[in-house]
Amino acid sequence: MLGVVTPKISIQTQDFDVAAEIVALTAGRADIGAVVTFSGLCRDEGEVLTALELEHYPGMAEGEIGRIAAEAVNRWPLQGVTVIHRHGRIAPGQNIVLVVTASTHRQAAFEAADFLMDYLKSRAPFWKKEHRADGSEGGWVDAKDSDEQAATRWR
Amino acid sequence: MKLIYFAWVRERIGKSEEDVELPAEVTTVAELLAWLKSRGEEYENALQHARSIRVAINQEHVDHGEKIGGAREIALFPPMTGG
């Protein structure tokens, strides 16, 4: 069945449950053959960080992710899309972002999830600030040219 | 017009938002950035590398060449680091 896919988008402080989000996309239907999930976690290399603080632009964050998700729905034959992005203080090891894509076959689901993450990285209005274990001001995380480059391959 | 600042742009300017009356000659994003830089040391410090500043008009990304007529809300921020 081909219907209009309405992406689920949530900007929230609380954690998410990956398994529950997959069930929410697939429950009660038998036409989905592939679900891809990507989770992005707060990473700490060498016990330097106590947390990342994620600032966002309320309103635009939802709007921009909505535009990115709508483009994914236009480009790939998807049957479901979920994007959850957390904000606020997030400790190492905790979840930051979730992308779930569902399709008849795996290629569309993989590609759409990859596209969504590349665009989220370079266009969704979020900024990470480091809180360091030694109490020093870690400062704002610098944007990577490689993330900007990654988004250009989908043009 | 409402200006909103995020991340280190907000910290360097020292406020998260403000209402401003723009001079008539300020018609593009680039001109807005140049005008803001002239408003004091904190703005100069925040916007010294103007080309790296990202701008959204009414919550949508725009280039520095964009006209700002009709804007209700203009946001200035560093390159994004979400995901």
Structure description:
The complex is a heterodimer of chains A (155) and B (83). By secondary structure, chain A is an alpha+beta fold. Chain A has one domain (8-152): Molybdopterin biosynthesis MoaE subunit (Aldehyde Oxidoreductase, domain 3). Chain A is built from 4 helices and 8 strands, in the order βαββαβββαββα. In chain A, strands 1-4-6-2 form a 4-stranded mixed β-sheet, sandwiched between helices. Chain A has a 4-stranded antiparallel β-sheet with strand order 5-3-7-8, with no helix packed on it. In chain A, β7 (126-132) and β8 (137-140) form a beta hairpin. In chain A, α3 (106-123) crosses α4. Chain A is globular. The two termini of chain A are 29 Å apart. Chain B has 83 residues and is of the alpha+beta class. Chain B has a domain at 24-71. In chain B, 27% of the residues lie in helices and 23% in strands. Chain B contains 3 helices and 5 strands. Chain B has a 5-stranded mixed β-sheet with strand order 2-1-5-3-4. Chain B is globular. The model of chain B has no long low-confidence stretch (mean pLDDT 97). At the A-B interface, β3, α2, α3 and β7 of A face loops of B.
Q: What integer is the average pLDDT of chain A?
A: 95
Structural class per helix/strand content of chain A?
alpha+beta
Low-confidence residue ranges of chain B: none
Report Rg of chain B: 12 Å
Instruction: Report on the biggest sheet of chain B.
Output: 5 strands, mixed
Proportion in helices of chain A: 25-40%
Oligomer: heterodimer
| Global outline of chain B | globular
Strand composition percent of chain B: 15-25%
- Highest CATH level, the class of chain A: Alpha Beta
CATH level 3 topology of chain A: Aldehyde Oxidoreductase, domain 3
* Biggest sheet, spatial arrangement of strands of chain B: 2-1-5-3-4
Give the proportion of residues in helices of chain B. Answer: 25-40%
Tell me the layout of helices and strands.
The complex is a heterodimer of chains A (155) and B (83).
Chain A: E1 8-12, H1 18-26, E2 34-41, E3 49-56, H2 60-75, E4 78-86, E5 88-90, E6 95-103, H3 106-123, E7 126-132, E8 137-140, H4 145-152
Parallel strand pairs in A: 1-4
Antiparallel strand pairs in A: 2-6, 3-5, 3-7, 4-6, 7-8
Helix pairs in contact in A: 2-3, 3-4
Chain B: E1 2-5, H1 7-13, E2 17-19, H2 29-37, H3 41-46, E3 54-57, E4 60-62, E5 73-77
Parallel strand pairs in B: 1-5
Antiparallel strand pairs in B: 1-2, 3-4, 3-5
